Each structure stands twice: as C-alpha cells, then as structure tokens.
From TrEMBL:
Residues 357-379 are annotated as: Disordered. Keywords: ATP-binding, Nucleotide-binding, Transport. Residues 18-284 form the ABC transporter domain. The lineage of its organism: Archaea, Methanobacteriati, Methanobacteriota, Stenosarchaea group, Halobacteria. GO terms for molecular function: ATP binding; ATP hydrolysis activity. One of its GO terms (biological process) is transmembrane transport. Belongs to the ABC transporter superfamily. InterPro entries: AAA+_ATPase, ABC_transp_ATP-bind, ABC_transporter-like_ATP-bd, ABC_transporter-like_CS, Oligopep_ABC_C, P-loop_NTPase. This is Oligopeptide/dipeptide ABC transporter, ATPase subunit. Gene3D superfamilies: P-loop containing nucleotide triphosphate hydrolases.
Length: 379
C-alpha cells in the first residue's frame, strides 16, 4: 500500500459527510402499453437495506453485474435519488427533509446539491453541443455565486482547466464539445463538478468509455484531484480491475453489490486477494488479471449462471440460487453484513460461512452442493 493510501485510510472514520441508514430504493417496473392496461405494476427492488457512510477524503468503489443497483445506490448517496425507505444525511442533515422543508433545516438543500456532484460515462451527452466550454463552465458558477466577478470566474475556470492538463486553458475554453476528444470531454465534466468545491463526486462508469491507455491516466488524475481538493469519490464500475486500482491507490474501500445489496466490503487487497463471499469469488474468477488460476478453471464457481429477477429476488440469501456453497438455511435466513460495515476499515461479508458457529454448518447442503466441514471442526 502506498504512503498516500495509509494516510487517507486512517482518517476515514473521522468526518462523515454522507450517511445512509437502512436505505432501500424500489421502482415501479416499466411496462408496455398493453401490460399497463391488464397487469398490476411490479416493483423492482433496486437497492435493499444498505447502510454506508462516506467520510471526507474517502473513496468507495462499487462493483457488480449490470442491473445490481450500483447507479441507483450511487445516486442515492449523492441525494439525486430519493430512497423508498431509510435515511440519507449530509453532515447530519436529512437530505430529503431539507428538500421538503421538514423540521429544522440546518443545511439548505441547494447547498447539499452543490456539495454532491456527478460525472457520467458519456460526458459528450452531458455537455451542450451548441455551447462553448467556457459558457458551460460559467453557468453553474453564475448560479451558485452570482456575486463573483467575470474576471474571478474565468480565472477560476482557467486555473482548473490548467490543473487537469488542458493547456492552454484559453484555447480549450473557446472550443465546442465536438472539438474535444472523449478524454478531454471527461476532463471538462470533471472541471464542472470541481468548480462547485464538492464534498463528494459520483463517478459513474467515468472511465469505461475511454481507451484503455487513457483509463489509468484518468484514474490517476481523479486520485490527484481527490487528494488536492479533499474530495471523496464514489466510483462505479463493472470492471473489477479499475475499481481495485482506484480504491487501492486511494486507501479506500471496494463494495461488491449483488441484487441490490452490498455483499462484501473492505480494503481491496483483502476483499480481492481473499474473498469471503462466494459472489466476490465469481467476480474475481471473471477478471483474468486478478485470478491467474481462473485460466485453468473452465467453469465459473456458480451452480447457475442465471441472474434472478430483481422483481422477485430469492428468499434468504439472495445469492443462494447460484451459490456453490448454499445450504438449506441460506434459502430462509438472510446473512447480514453487520452494522460496523458502514464505516469499518476491516472487511465485512454477508455470508453465513464467515461465522464458524453458525447453524449453516449443520444445515443440509442444497442439491449439487458439496458438504464442507466448519472451520472449527477442521482445527
Ligand atoms: N428509473 C427506473 N425505473 C424502473 N426501474 C429502474 C429504474 N432505474 C433502475 N431501474 C432498475 O433497477 C435495477 C438496478 O438498476 P441500476 O441502473 O441501479 O443498476 P446498475 O448496477 O447500475 O446497472 P448498469 O451497470 O447496467 O448500469 C435494474 O433492475 C434496473 O432495471
């Protein structure tokens, strides 16, 4: 681990910026016209009972298969998505009470929104094609700080363009988005977010669309900016290697999501070098550069490759229908990640197998599952 990683890792618990407690987000499943006439709307459980804190100068990388709820959780963390259940607080202020004007509001919603920014996978789509970079970057500053002089505003924009390597800044400021490469557009999106002096930036698949050679460069830039501006990052990726790189270098955490739940979380080296949740093992298997033995193993370590429907997730442990270790108890009792997982620097996994005294070890293995003895019995 780098010196930098050690420094940021030890300060994580000190100043909580965002706190999510038992947050769930449900959506009404989109239906076709005919379906909506005849069928009751179905509910998609996009995020289920997640508790997580983001502290100052923190990095949380969320990974998991498509549709597991990464974006929904990320948007809930930055106050863009309203939770169906649970609370989301910014420095102790309930975000949605602030939005609705309920109770004593200590931090106005506008200030919360400004402090929580987002950059998307496709920066081109997020930039107005008919506006020069300068106009795009001036707009949010004019809104949040109308008193700022044009001279100061531009000086700030040029300084940040310069900081992200867009030199000379005056040249880039007068370009239209189509006159920029994908990597440059992503830098503009980053500058736009940073101009607000945010506490947290959600980077949703922010490097996925870039050429491989640009990905590491862009992640290194995010790391430098995170340190320089004391900004926390929630980094979403379906690519475990990218997520590991960013979380590892920043001394942050990696959170593995499956069907709306965080199933394992902790320092990336612990989570990925010695996964405790069987689903983390599957993701590791699927990432060849993380698991050299995967090359020799022809089949993935799952009993079924079918991902269950989030409208009707499996009972008990949601992974039990695919888990190669599942036993009867997993079909009825959901393992918990534990309260300490929200802030802990140590790794936590939601699997009965992490408890050597759990009734799991006496429970009947499901069809196709080989019985293993409990770690206690093996001692
Ligand atoms: N606005 C919405 N209306 C209805 N369903 C939604 C909505 N947004 C997300 N969902 C559903 O919620 C679940 C989680 O979606 P989400 O986009 O958060 O997952 P994800 O892990 O970010 O996926 P991806 O990697 O494909 O972006 C999916 O089943 C998705 O179809």
């Amino acid at each position: 681990m780098s010196d930098r990683a050690t420094t940021t890792g030890t300060t994580r618990d000190d100043d909580v910026v965002m706190s999510l407690e038992n947050v769930s987000v449900d959506f009404e499943k989109e239906q076709g016209v005919l379906e909506s006439l005849f069928d009751e709307p179905e509910t998609v459980q996009a995020v289920s009972d997640v508790s997580i804190d983001i502290s100052e100068n923190d990095v949380l990388a969320l990974v998991g298969e498509s549709g597991c709820g990464k974006t929904t959780l990320g948007k809930t963390i930055i106050g863009v998505q309203r939770p169906t259940e649970g609370t989301v607080s910014y420095r102790g202020q309930d975000v949605w009470d602030a939005k609705d004007g309920r109770g004593d509001v200590t931090v106005p919603f506008d200030d919360i929104r400004r402090s929580l920014q987002m950059i998307h996978q496709d920066p081109g789509a997020a930039l107005n094609p008919n506006r020069k970079v300068l106009t795009t970057l001036e707009a949010p500053l004019k809104k949040w700080d109308p008193e700022m002089s044009t001279e100061d505003r531009r000086a700030r924009i040029f300084a940040l363009l310069d900081r992200v390597g867009m030199e000379p800044p005056e040249d880039y400021a007068h370009r239209f988005p189509h006159q920029l490469s994908g990597g440059e557009q992503q830098r503009i999106a980053l500058v736009r977010a940073l101009l607000m002096n945010p506490d947290v930036i959600l980077a949703d698949e922010a490097v996925s669309a870039l050429d491989v050679s640009l990905r590491v460069e862009t992640m290194n830039l995010l790391l430098e900016l995170q340190e320089q501006f004391n900004t926390s990052f929630v980094f979403i990726s379906h690519n475990l290697s990218n997520a590991r790189y960013l979380a590892q270098e920043a001394g942050g955490r990696i959170g593995i999501m499956y069907l709306g739940e965080i199933v394992e979380i902790g320092p990336p080296d612990e989570v990925l070098n010695d996964p405790q949740h069987p689903y983390t093992k599957v993701l590791r298997w699927a990432t060849a550069d993380l698991d050299p033995t995967a090359q020799e193993m022809t089949d993935p370590p799952v009993r079924s490759i079918d991902i269950p429907d989030p409208v009707n997730p499996p009972s008990g442990c949601r992974f039990h229908t695919r888990c190669p270790e599942a036993r009867e108890v997993c079909t009825t009792t959901a393992p918990e990640l534990g309260e300490e997982a929200a802030t802990a620097s140590e790794r936590c996994a939601a699997c009965h197998r992490t408890d050597p005294d759990h009734e799991y070890w006496e429970s009947e293995p499901l069809d196709g599952v080989e019985a293993a003895e409990s770690p206690t019995l093996n001692d």
